[in-house]
Design a protein that fits this description.
The chain is of the alpha/beta class. The chain has 11 helices and 11 strands.
């Protein structure tokens, strides 16, 4: 068997620009073509605004970080509580920043797996600070409150939909229509919905036929609800290696088959 190759394969990468570099480099190192179309921009909230919000919160027993972006913009506001990460990428960001991760899912990388950790099952009377963006799933907070915890949010960044010029959208449209985009990488439901809104309507038929690669079952459900015949591939995790390995399984011609 030859070495894995993505020669001639075009992949649309929808991650925020500052997070797309690693997967883009991995795709291109295998001969693929990475087309970057960030569908979420991450904007840190003003430091004074975040500091004011922290002053209104209780000292936490636990500080939960829901993403590497939460770590990047909010680790200094862990407040002395035990630090929990929703998954390995978030845990790696915490460690890289010089802090210790006390709680991380033994398997998986989402709220459900974090909530299964023994340290978060007996939280009655505890204060939990969830550090995140301007919005997100409520499962963590709802479940921890049912378990008797006081849950407080700290929003340290905003997720916004990027703006594109007509010329930029025309280039994306041309890539779809010419068949140069052979797969799309989407990491979250919000990203998928933004992608649908950003793309010209003339691209939606191509999107519905283009393999979708994601680490999140929720993304697959949303995609199939909107495009019942869309081909989907579930990556084993959110790390770059997981995403690239999933791309490599897509077809016998492009993904490294010999």
């Amino acid at each position: 068997m030859s070495d894995p190759s993505l020669a001639g394969v075009g992949i649309l990468v929808t991650r925020p620009l500052h997070q797309a570099g690693e997967v883009t480099a991995a795709i291109e190192s295998l001969g693929g073509n990475a087309f970057c179309l960030p569908c979420i921009d991450i904007l840190p909230r003003p430091a004074a605004e975040v500091t004011a919000a922290v002053s209104e919160l209780s000292p936490p027993d636990f500080a939960i970080f829901v993403s590497p972006n939460a770590v990047r913009h909010g680790l200094i506001h862990a407040g002395g509580g035990r630090i929990a990460a929703v998954g390995p990428a978030t845990a790696a960001a915490i460690i890289a920043a010089g802090s210790i991760v006390d709680i991380v899912p033994a398997a998986g990388y989402d709220s459900e797996h974090l909530l299964a950790e023994p340290a978060l099952t007996d939280v009655a009377g505890k204060v939990v600070r969830i550090i995140r963006g301007n919005q997100g799933r409520e499962l963590l907070a709802d479940t921890l409150r049912r378990r008797g915890a006081t849950v407080e949010y700290l929003s340290v960044y905003d997720r916004v939909v990027p703006s594109y010029t007509p010329e930029e959208l025309s280039a994306v449209e041309a890539n779809f229509h010419s068949g140069r985009i052979n797969a799309v990488v989407v990491m979250s439901v919000e990203t998928l919905l933004n992608l649908i809104d950003i793309l010209p309507a003339s691209c939606h038929d191509e999107l519905a036929r283009t393999p979708l690669v994601t680490p999140a079952p929720r993304v697959i459900k949303e995609a199939v609800d909107r495009f019942p015949r869309i081909p989907t591939t579930l990556a084993e995790g959110p790390q770059t290696a997981n995403i690239v390995n999933a791309i490599l399984t897509l077809s016998p011609t492009a993904p490294g088959q010999s």
